[in-house]
Amino acid sequence: RPRSHTVTTTSSSFTANLSASSSTLAYDREFLRTPPGLLMVTEIVLGLLVWTLIAGTEYFLYPAFGWVMFVAVFYWVLTVFFLIIYMTMTYTRIPQVPWTTVGLFFNGSAFILYLIAAIVDASSVTKELDSHNYNSWAASSFFAFVVTSCYAGNTYFSFISWRSRTLQ
C-alpha cells in the first residue's frame, strides 16, 4: 500500500524579521558622542596601545606578559565587535538577545580581567640591563590601568542601562 508523505515547513518570526530587516544597515552617528561611545573608542585606541607596546618586546619569555597580551587582545577584538554592533544598530535587529545584560557582563568582565592584567603587568615590570623592554612594559602598564578605568566607566553606564531596563 503506498504511503502518503506530508512535509510541513514553518518559518520562525526570527528568520522572517531578520530577512525583512537585513536589507539596509542603519548607522548611529550619535553613539560616538555618548559617554559609552567615547569610552569604547578610548578602550579601542588605548587597548591597542597596550598590546602593541608588549608585542614589540620579548614578552614570550615571561608568562605574565602572555596573560596581559591575552586579555588585551581578547577584549580589544570584542570591543571592536561591540562598537560595530552599536554603530550599525544591529542590536535593534536581534531583539531576542538581552543586550543590556550582555553589555553589563561584557564590561564587568573586561573591567575585572583588565584590572588583574594591569596589576600583573605593573608587578612584572623589571629594569633589566641592556634591555629596551623596561620602557615599553612600564608604558603598557600605565595604559592598562587607563583602559581599566574606561571599562569601569562603561560598566557603570551598562549597569545604569540594565537597571533602568529591569525596572520597567
From TrEMBL:
InterPro entries: MAL (IPR013295), Marvel (IPR008253), MARVEL-CKLF_proteins (IPR050578)
Coiled coil: none
Keyword Membrane recorded: yes
Gene expressing this chain: Cmtm8
Species, as recorded: Glareola pratincola (Collared pratincole)
Domain of life, per lineage: Eukaryota
Name assigned to this protein: CKLF8 protein
Record Pfam families: MARVEL
Protein's GO biological process: myelination
PANTHER family, per the entry: CKLF-LIKE MARVEL TRANSMEMBRANE DOMAIN-CONTAINING PROTEIN 8, MARVEL-CONTAINING POTENTIAL LIPID RAFT-ASSOCIATED PROTEIN
Record has Transmembrane as a keyword: yes
Membrane topology: Multi-pass membrane protein
